[in-house]
Amino acid sequence: MNNSYFENNNTYMEWKLDEKIYKTIVGALGSCNSSNNSVQVEVTKVLKDLNENVADAALYLLHIFMNKQENNDVRQVGGLLLKNYINSKNKFLSNDILKIIKNEIFKLVEDEVKEIRNTSGSVITTILTKYEGIEQWPEALYNLLLLIERGNNDVVDGAFRAILIIIEDELMNRKNRDSLFFQFCKSQLLQKLFQFCSPQEKNIKKKYAAECLDLFITSSCFTTNGVFNDMFAQLWECLGYLASEEDPQILKIVVSCMTIITDTRYSSIFSNLDAIIQFMVNATNSNDRKVQLEALEFWPIFIKDRSYVAYASYNNPKSDINKSDSNYIDENVYKNINELRTEALKRLKNYLPYLCKILIDNTVYTKWDYLTMDESHFQNDNANVPDLIQDISPELYNNKNNDIAQEEIKMNKMNNINNNNNNININSSNNNINNNNVINNNNNNNIGDINKNNINSSNNNINNNNVINNNNNNNNNDNNNNNILLNKNDDIMMTPNNNHNNNTEDFSDDDLDEKNDEMSSRTWGNDWTVRKGAALCLDYLSNVYNDEILEFVLPHIEEKLMSDKWNIRESAVLTLGAIAKGCMYSLSPFIPKVLEYLIKLLNDEKPLARSISCWCVTRFSSWICHPDNCEKWFEPVLLNLLKRILDSNKRVQEAACSSFANLEEDALELLNNYLHEIVHTIQQAFQIYQAKNYFILFDVVGTLIDSVNIVKENNELAHEVVYAILSKWVNIRISSPYIIALMECMSCITSAYGKEFLKYAKDVIRTCIKFLVILYIDLEEEVKYFYSKKLFNSISFISNRNNISSTANELLTYYKITNDDYFICMKDIDTISPSKKKDLIECSFDLLSRILSVINSSIMDILNESEYNFIPLVHKYCLKLQNIKFDDFNNKIMSNHEELRNIINPDGTLQNGYIMGDKNEYSELAKQFLDFGILQSNFALIGDISRFCPQYLITYLNDIIPFLIAHITHPSTPVSNNASWAIGEISIHINSEYMEIYVDEITKQLIYICQNSKYHGCLLQNICITFGRLTSTYPKKLIFYFPQFLKTWLKIMAHGTQENEKINSLKAVLETLYINLDLAAEHLKDIVYIILKYKYVSQNVNIFFHQFLATMKEKYPNHWKEIYSQTGDSLSSPIPNDMLSDLATRFNL
């Protein structure tokens, strides 16, 4: 094509097209859908030529888009190409051309063809949101609003769709309150939206206005501190108008908006409380399934207990609350929040007879429930049918948090050395492979989440002194909040997809895909349905109203149990299970008959009936295991559940395993008399289960090991369990769908055996090493490809799985892995997702760390054999370009040395075929190729290696220490925490000469964190502990930093609980202060306060404290008098009298 461009013209009418070019483009667009490869090649060639060589290509596309004589499909493709052309910021897209497009595009919003209207809206929003921004084209917003006012339904549809996209994009980018967009909303858009909600307006305008308002409400714009707070009264009035509409789409939006407003502006609903309750009751009983689903989300929000938020905020008025957060409540509400909730519950009780009946009626299976299930739910004998790989959910390592923004998901490795390392009691249902200390992020707003990798028990028994805990109990309904959470394995209570707070912007595409695919067809189907929502609401209501709800529920249960239809009887069982936890006391007289019925139902001919009875029977597990009842009921329930674990239906097997895992947690020592039956059932299950059910079977094993100390109770049976697991372990392939579940189970076994696990350690370590080797080789290929592409702007490096690279050859030889094994693994690794690869690395590190923490220094006997020495791999994963050999790719790199230096960093060099870089290389490479979880786990493992086999680490310290330093100020709290912890461990366990040259840099970064308020409180304390450890090893270096840091250090260390490591750090700091006692005198009040606070110390430490205080009293009498002053200053508060009295009683001072 030849360039064709208008000269001295700036209007579309004056532009002259080249007919030949135009016909060529139209012909290509008309052939886009051809299945002929040669035609597709020609189309691609034409479009590439158009983009690269035709200066006015955008105008040709615009002309095609506007030409009503062309086929509508061709027109739409032309519009989409125009949008992409603008989005790509093509070099030929001048201001003159863009001006023409902006002038003409609004005509297409009025086109009679819906697809053209939609595409024109996309072009407009692309210009506004991707190319120029609203500030450069503000008239577009006003033009769209004018089209909505004056246009017919088609025009309204096109213009509103464009506005919706603009609103969504602007809210996502979170413009400041003074932005042009928000000014437009306040002055123009919102008033129009409110107007369009009035009863006399067209239905299409109401629907779109409701959608727009929904976006603003969902984005917290109408909260008490939102940008549109002053317009809330008008919004509330509009929602009242819309609530009287019959259109299900509008009603769904109204229900959703009222739910959010109830959650964020609780006091605002009380002026219309009865009307709202009645509206929501009607919506719950709607004929439209989507309206019902939205309404079912309202009731847990409406009745939840907000006092925990109110109390914390009211008592900490200066606390740094995120005002836009959905849990933020107006300060005026804090004082009477409990009274408001009491009033709400009182009013709702009047509607319970109607609401409960509606909920109970909706627990019956519907076509929507059946549509979410696969055939396996209905087949009576399918235990021998292999699971298809596409039916198995991708595994997500349990230590990952779904909300990546927080990432506080796993372990705080700043553990207490003096703790007994064998007393690590991690609940197996939580399946955390992490070491002694855990950063816990239990999002209890995800009610009843039963996914196999997200199973949380009510008790997290972690032997830990330093826990970063991030519990988001957003749905606490009363003081018995744990009871409201449905049973951890209740597939029937699967968490709904709550769209009110979708924090997914930080997920990669792979993460999102896996998160969505994770909801596989489990025991009762994968989708959130009305049936599940109704059962969940009954559970909430029963936990709030307790026995008061029975009069509204029991008659319906009894009626349904007498039905001759199995699905009606089944719904009664579901209802009974839903209310069991909240009404246990008053149900007690009826429970024996209930259990008789359920045990009978466990042997029903229908698989779905057997499944629901498995779930329901263990909703009463606390009653069954009570001393007054266990003698009669525990054995029949247990034995029948064991029978169902070996059921002929795979989904019943799954339900039985889940229920048995719950029973285990309540039963504890009651299981001791039945260990033979349990273990033999598990062994048989391992023989007959298909891949999908291994996930839950591993959980059963883990829970059994945690609930019953089977190693001590019956070592022979324990070995049988371990043998069953090891038989899977030694033959596991890296592509196995249940590999992570198996590794988590192995972690539980490791903890249970303690030092006795040494006899199994080699087999476990060997498999972890094999995985880490293969995954590292794959990771190195990724690094090579990345730099090849970046350096040459092309795919110059192609990984050949049939060849063995020099790195691969080195590792395979060192670890004695055969070439055949290697090629099988590399073939397998190409079938798993990038995120699962990272999970496997993280999981392997965690399991190795767990082994180290239980067998301690005994690991050295194993590390003496090279094929079991995993420490070189730990070093490899501290990525450094210098350590990556680029093989034959090296010649190309040498010829482009200067370009490569600019890509890596200005100080980059090349030596002996290796790329060299400066210290920034450590963090940059990790940021590109390692996720936070890998770093966190690797640093934890480095710390444990330092504790138990430090001599094996010395060779690699010149790389490892700078790598740790580079991540001390990492944005992820767990990564930062574990990096500093590992540095502290190295400083006290390895000869001081290896770290001395790094001490100044480390100290500066530690001080930076402690003086920066954005960091987590527990991280600050652990950073201070590391500072104390460094002080004990390098006192003369660290004393230099005391003047600028000691005050902050003492303040931070005075907070929180007393722990041995904090005491040791304080002792080290005080010992160092003997170098400069004048400095100690300046901070004497803070020093005395922290010493007095640390009451529970050893005799030797107490003697040391006494000597230090006596020295200070003698040498600095004036400063000593000041500690008794009850008038605080700007730097220190007075020490309480009851603590000062300890100076006499405890120290005789």
TrEMBL record:
* Cited Gene3D superfamilies: Leucine-rich Repeat Variant
Gene Ontology molecular function: small GTPase binding
The record places domain Importin N-terminal at 43-111
Q: Where found in the cell?
A: Cytoplasm
Biased region (Acidic residues) positions are 506-516
Q: Where is the composition biased (Low complexity)?
A: 468-487
**Could you tell me which residues belong to the region Disordered?**
468-521
Q: Which Pfam families does the UniProt entry name for this protein? A: HEAT_EZ, IBN_N
Q: Is Iron tagged as a keyword? A: no
GO terms for biological process? Answer: protein import into nucleus
Name it.
Transportin
This protein's species is: Plasmodium falciparum IGH-CR14
